[in-house]
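Q&A log
Question type: sequence-to-structure
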Amino acid sequence: MSICSMKRLVYILLAIALVGCHSDEDIVDMAQIRFDATVVSRDALSQSNIESGKVFVCGVQNNSNKIFNNVAITRDATTGKWFSSTKRNWTEGSNYSFHAYAYNTANGLTLTNGKDGLEFTIQQPSAYNPDAMVDYLLSYSFKVADGAMKPIVQLQLEHAMSLVEIYVVRGNMFDARLTKMTFENVYWQGSMKCTAQAVANSGVRNVWEVSPSGSNDVEYIYQPTTAATIGDQRSNTQAKMMIMCLPQQLTASTKLTIEYEVNEKVTPESPDNFVKHKEEFQLYNYQPINYQSGHRIVYTATVDSGVNLEGVISAWKDVDYIEGTVLPEVN
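Response status: OK
Response body:
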């Protein structure tokens, strides 16, 4: 066999090998509309809930043809790829718009018919139960000018609720225990409507119209069976609450009450002498008085000779800035 014939044979074998590396599935995937869903903010909606199919996609072709009608997408834990039982291919020359929504539980949540997840009513639990609280997310709109581009549709989900975190930590006190914590008088039910949906990568956020309903008389009480140990930092304290709130302006009746015990024994060798204390904070008197959609409000109450309450408001995601304020000490 001549050298030229051998070269041709090598090229043919190489071409066959390269074709063999691409399955029919890979070729089909290039034509199919594919998705990637990410939570752009702090992951209160756990990955297990996302993987179980509680992310729903809406997609419109040429401004009118709904090709994905609230279709569930799920994530393969092994490959990391998202897939749907509904398959659609890109069409060259067509424009597209996509968005998605997700939630951790349907209990207390009612989606408005025909609104593709942009409107809903919600009822958070009437008693403190962090596992039962509804976390709702809506993505930014993802636009494609021409189907010939065949991008992976990036669905960046953003929280609609406000997250309130409360931590009780100890200062110089050697031994302190939380007996009861009460967060009360906020609206816990109402409706939300997205009036302006942000476009992906535009740097702006979704805009919500919030209409509370009923009374702002909910009382969330955390009262452990045995007094909870108060640690010296947020990461190790057992005295904490996490609450999903409807975005709202606080009223004069919104309060945080902390009841705790401090071991006031005279010397280390003396018997324990736990003395009960109670501190009440009227949150309307401090900033923030507005709980905004997608924000997490973190209160840290430090138990010392009294209780010093510090609060910060931050975007509910990992960012390089904090917009916040310090709440003054209450003696």
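Response note: Confidence is low (pLDDT under 50) at residues 6-27, 42-48, 318-331.
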